[in-house]
Amino acid sequence: MKIRDVLLSEYGKASSVPSPINRLMTGFAVDFRDGCDINLGAGYVNERTIPHQQIQSACEEVLARPKKYRAALNYGGAQGSPNLIESLRRFHIENRSGGITEPILNTKEIVIGANGATSLLESITHLLPAGIALTADPMYYIYCNDLERKGFKVVAIPEDDEGLDTELLKAKLAALGDEKAAIRFLYVVTVNNPTCTILSNNRKRELVEIVTQMSYDVGQKIPIFFDNAYRDLVHDSTVEPVESALCYDALGIVYEVGTLSKILAPGLRIGYLIGSKGPFLNSIIQRTSDIGFSAPLINQEIASYLLDHGIEAQIEKVNGGYRQKAKQVKTWIAELLGEHLQECRGGSAGFYYYLTLASVATDSTSNFFRFLTRTTGKENIDGPLDAQHPKVIYIPGEHCVHPKGEMVDIGKRQFRISYGFEELPQLHTALKFMKSAIAYSHENS
Ligand SMILES: Cc1ncc(COP(=O)(O)O)c(C=O)c1O
């Protein structure tokens, strides 16, 4: 008898095939040659920003002080370590308030995710019914892909240099008409990935106003999630100080997602959510319990110790490194790619530049892509099969813009490069290859 394969849910079916971007990145990872190929694609932090020594000492301190850090190698509670929650509370009020005062924070709850901010974002998709999720275009493709596999319809609104364009959002809401009732939440990355555009305080305030009004219109609170993954990585001192959207939240619909991945270490897997106490946050806590009880308690205690001891110096150090790289890379971009550039976003925060070329395609079938990945089939470009020339990996814009959004066409001429992971000499070499890739594209167009 013929036996069919394991029966999968709709989500299971959608997840059984890797997303296009995962396929692309896995393909690169398989034959990546350390010391030869250059990875401007990965969202990895710079290894030198991770405080290895302090993490080691923090671990020793935590284990040596069992009265404060109780049973740190045992299971933890689902809301998160009380020490870490207290450290985050202080961190937000004293150092990084963005206008949050103690009375405001007293009306909020902080919950720690099971596995970084990613696990909290993922939990949202299980706790809200499927429907429309609004976000900015270009979008954080990893999360938006997850949302679509879970049955959400992602509607992406183009951003300008202040972030998600609220005029376009209003027009989109008007065009949705009755479909507005299907809007489940907004998801806005405050230093956007992939563009590193910083959401201005004005825009943030306007977004909260629009969603507050929309909540009244439909008679239901519609949450707005601000993803602050790169909030503490604003390294340009000319940028206005970033305010917290929790300050504008009269209705209790604002939630802020934070992570220690970018300022300490992604490997600690510490992400948190701040928002109004109530059924939604309770359901997040239950979900954390369901998927793994809690983040590893030892990591939470280490993170708490690090937040209590020298976090501002650590953040300054991290930003000092990225600030210097951002400036140098910008100079090289102007020098090497300048005449072919239509637009360059980023450079003030985070560690990505998002480039738009005037007339050269960057998608995975383009000559630009083939040149850089050494897949032109021409030996003078790719090098001999057993000793190929260095490859350069980047994220094509086609994967960053929504496939059904307004940016599909321009996305084919865009790309994200990261100056986080690789060091300056490799970044310079990669940009020189990109200049040659543009010349090759022109010759072969
Ligand atoms: C916008 C955004 N949100 C969330 C994350 C993931 O954070 P975490 O490491 O805490 O899961 C990233 C990682 O790059 C990100 O770019």
Task: Please describe what this structure looks like.
- Helix content is 42%, strand content 15%.
- By secondary structure, the protein is an alpha/beta fold.
- The chain has two domains: 10-49 and 319-443, Aspartate Aminotransferase, domain 1, CATH 3.90.1150.10; 52-313, Aspartate Aminotransferase, domain 2, CATH 3.40.640.
- The chain is globular and about 65 Å long.
- The mean pLDDT is 96.
- Residues 43, 116-118, 140, 189, 193, 227, 229, 259, 261, 266, 271 line the site of pyridoxal-5'-phosphate.
What is the CATH topology of the largest domain? Aspartate Aminotransferase, domain 2
Class computed from helices, strands and strand pairing? alpha/beta
- For CATH, the homologous superfamily of the largest domain is named as Type I PLP-dependent aspartate aminotransferase-like (Major domain)
Radius of gyration: 22 Å
The percentage helix is 40-55%
Number of domains: 2
Number of helices: 16
Biggest sheet strand line-up? 2-9-8-7-6-3-4-5
Q: For the record, give the distance between the C-alpha atoms at the N and C termini, rounded to a whole number.
A: 54 Å
The profile of the biggest β sheet is:
8 strands, mixed
Q: What molecules are bound to this protein?
A: pyridoxal-5'-phosphate
DSSP summary, beta strand count? 14
Compact overview of the structure:
The protein is of the alpha/beta class. 42% of the residues lie in helices and 15% in strands.
